[in-house]
């Protein structure tokens, strides 16, 4: 299978992973070495960017819902997100070519061997998005929000199995707490309906969590496969296939609407803001995959979820529930345990 | 203050604490030494007994509520619980005197110096029980159940301050999780009312948690002060003062009812069962204080709370909520972290 090939190449020589691995045995002070410091800084910046973008994303969604119902086609918006990401990657590449010149690492042209794995994450997301339409026959929207927390567990398990990276016992405990804490924070009086989800609904939720986790972990494998390769080139190819698969989604789901009403029907300034935000978040996710990993991504988006709720108190007069406080406490302890679990292994 | 005196004596020579301390530096295999094995066994037996008795206690309460309203006076029942504990301690002592003879460690007679601290836990519980009548002006009964989880934190903090015993970072994290997990497991759609508790209600809840935590930690200090002293003698003196303070409670609160309707008015077979159960649980708590500590007690009663809910599904057709599953998960992870936290310090 494809991901086996990626891993085998990883073993032969992967400077980034080797750097990470070599840190484990070292005393803590060594982390402050100049190269590691830059890497740590990069990791922090992209993680904070992802947290900020994800929470503002959620706030834009609440805002757009308050402004009225979705009238634009979601598939065309998704296509534009991929197109914008592609364009931004090209702009960044252009600047790099001007300052550093074209090298083997930042040239756009590629080999079939390199590019052959790039469509896979986009294809997995497409299947997941299509399944999303069917799961609502079994679960309501708030219930689906709860079930989406299964992503946390599936990401952890697939990260361990596919990328063969070990988490310490304490970090596994922290990961279970992250899932339980996020779910607790989202509890509302009607959440118990989720327990009545029929068997097929559970199966679909689990399959979707696995698809989503697999796509995330696979993207990390692709990006980390060639650590010296410029991230903008890697992003460009990921997003080209993202555009292609979203074009398929438009044809399958919204072809008539687009032909009759036009591609941009129902777009408002807030839709444009959401597209820009999604594009930037997507690039931040790629950056986190390059300079950190899926575990950091999961923590970052979980913290974003809690931040969103706190910000919504001021913006939309939301009330925070007791469950939210309890869930946030558990998530905070989870983050603390994840960080001390690293040092103690 | 009294507890200072106890601690100072602890420092001079406390075989039990010294044994515990000396374990820390030793390799794990040493724990299996014959003496420690017996102690570990004793610790497990008393902990399991406390867990079993506490959960059956809660089940008896649900059962008695279903059978009808409380008609008996709670103060007379509390007095009988203390009297029964006293009697059981004397029976146990009688057996020991027959087999081992009367020694300095198991003789009932005592000095003013030894006995002077024994009334304090009983007095603290009396004040706490009196406050309990007033807090219901600010919080409803389910809300009070939620606020009672503050006991977990107060016990941990006072255990650290008064007994000067250290918990590792991971064990502190585990303790916060235990509190959050227990509260989450008890959440119901109306729990959010707790957040509207007025300031005075919060203050009373915190004072009650401190009183209850202080009484527990102080009892441990008294019992561990003289490790060679027979636990039944220590219990006898604790319960004698328990009887005395409950007699005061009868006089203050229920004097008229007892004079007019009689001491045993409204007692049913289930009341008798509850008194027996409370007496046995009380003795189990003392045993846990002697052979383990307040931290074990808190874990034991928290697990009992979860067990009660599971058993109630079968006995009373209770439904378990999603919050219960999430809370139980957090409590389970907390127990795991507490146990690995011990080894890693």
Automatic annotation (TrEMBL), chains A, B:
It is a multi-pass membrane protein. GO terms for molecular function: pyrimidine nucleotide-sugar transmembrane transporter activity; transmembrane transporter activity. InterPro entries: Nuc_sug_transpt. Pfam families: Nuc_sug_transp. One of its GO terms (biological process) is transmembrane transport. The keyword Transcription regulation does not apply. It comes from the Eukaryota. One of its GO terms (cellular component) is Golgi membrane. Keywords: Membrane, Transmembrane, Transmembrane helix. The chain crosses the membrane at residues 45-64, 76-97, 170-187, 199-223, 235-252, 264-286, 298-316, 322-340. It is found in: Membrane. Its main location: membrane. This is Nucleotide-sugar transporter. The gene is CSTR2.
């Amino acid at each position: 299978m494809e991901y086996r090939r990626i891993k085998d190449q990883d073993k032969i020589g992967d400077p980034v992973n080797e750097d990470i691995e070599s840190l484990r045995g070292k005393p803590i002070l060594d982390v402050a070495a100049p190269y590691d410091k830059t890497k740590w800084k990069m990791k922090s910046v992209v993680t904070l960017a992802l947290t900020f973008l994800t929470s503002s994303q959620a706030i834009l969604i609440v805002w757009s819902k308050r402004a009225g119902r979705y009238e634009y086609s979601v598939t065309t918006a998704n296509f534009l997100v991929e197109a914008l990401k592609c364009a931004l990657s090209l702009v960044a590449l252009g600047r790099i070519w001007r300052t550093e010149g074209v090298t083997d690492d930042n040239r756009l042209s590629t080999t079939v061997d390199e590019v052959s794995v790039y469509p896979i994450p986009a294809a997995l997301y497409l299947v997941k998005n299509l399944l999303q339409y069917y799961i609502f026959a079994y679960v309501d929207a708030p219930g689906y929000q709860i079930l989406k927390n299964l992503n946390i567990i599936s990401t952890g398990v697939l990260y361990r199995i596919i990328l063969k990276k070990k988490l310490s016992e304490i970090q596994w405990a922290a990961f279970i707490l992250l899932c339980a804490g996020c779910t607790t924070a989202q509890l509302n009086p009607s959440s118990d309906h989720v327990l009545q989800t029929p068997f097929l609904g559970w199966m679909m939720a689990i399959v979707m969590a696995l698809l989503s986790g697999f796509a995330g972990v696979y993207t990390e494998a692709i990006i980390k496969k060639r650590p010296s390769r410029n991230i903008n080139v890697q992003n460009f190819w990921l997003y080209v296939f993202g555009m292609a698969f979203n074009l398929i989604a438009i044809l399958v789901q919204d072809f008539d609407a687009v032909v009759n009403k036009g591609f941009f029907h129902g777009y408002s300034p807030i839709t444009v803001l959401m597209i820009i935000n999604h594009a930037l978040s997507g690039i931040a996710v790629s950056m986190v995959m390059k300079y950190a990993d899926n575990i950091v991504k999961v923590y970052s988006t979980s913290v974003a979820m809690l931040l969103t709720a706190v910000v919504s108190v001021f913006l939309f007069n939301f009330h925070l529930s007791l469950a939210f406080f309890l869930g946030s406490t558990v998530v905070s302890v989870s983050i603390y345990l994840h960080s001390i679990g690293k040092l103690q292994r």
